[in-house]
Write a structure and sequence with these properties.
By secondary structure, the chain is mostly helical. The protein contains seven helices and no strands.
């Protein structure tokens, strides 16, 4: 019982830190506020991880070993990208459109500052999108949060199912600024990423790669169309 209370406290502190830092950074109008919040939460999560005498490697942050494992992880990453885009394009987007659910028109405003500025765009892509979102969100959401939820519910198949669903809902709610459409979309993406993480035997590399590719394609399309695609 005490261990479960500790887990709930850890998760609550991590989410509180993330939301507080995000609010402050947004108030100060700092670009990459989400990434700053994510890495602040990772710093705190690292304290908890060290107290348990575990490492990020134990949570799946390791590189593949050998050609076969590299090939399998990269292949799974690209397959995840295909699944996500198919889900969004063939199922989610039509359903959301049917019910008149769209992201707020000002969601993409935070990206306007790098349009027409290739060096600034690349810098933002690398620091905020790759390091901040792709790496940071996977470390925190799939590496830390998902595993702690599994520890909370018990190491069973049902526990994993519950943990994947709950962590996906939390991930979706963190994108509340994107409106209901954004919450639904990111929740389903988190469900896919959580399942892939489990399929990959709790290895983060495939989901980090998939996250990086998806965000890169989306942001590059936005840049190349001068903000028309978002």
């Amino acid at each position: 019982m005490k261990n479960r209370i500790n887990i709930v406290v850890e998760i609550s502190i991590i989410l509180a830190v993330m939301l507080f830092i995000k609010s402050v950074a947004d108030y100060l109008e700092i670009n990459g506020a989400g990434s700053i919040a994510i890495w602040s939460a990772i710093f705190v999560a690292n304290v908890f991880i060290k107290r348990r005498k575990t490492t990020w490697g134990d949570l799946g942050f390791v590189f593949p070993k050998g050609k076969r494992e590299w090939f399998a992880n990269i292949g799974l990453g690209f397959l995840t990208v295909i699944i996500v885009f198919l889900l969004m394009g063939l199922i989610l987007d039509p359903i959301l459109t049917y019910f008149g659910l769209e992201k707020p028109s000002d969601v993409a405003d935070r990206f306007q500052f790098f349009l027409g500025k290739p060096i600034l765009f690349i810098a933002y892509l690398v620091t905020v999108v790759w390091v901040g979102a792709a790496l940071g969100e996977e470390l925190l959401m799939r590496g830390f949060l998902l595993n702690r939820l599994v520890n909370l519910f018990g190491q069973t198949k049902i526990a994993w199912a519950l943990a994947i669903i709950i962590h996906a809902i939390i991930f979706g709610m963190l994108h509340v600024y994107q409106g209901l459409a954004g919450i639904i979309t990111t929740t389903f993406i988190a469900l896919i990423f959580g399942a892939v993480y489990l399929i990959a035997k709790r290895r983060l590399f495939p989901v980090i790669l998939a996250h990086l590719i998806i965000n890169t394609i989306s942001l590059t399309a936005f840049y190349l169309t001068d903000g028309v695609v978002n």
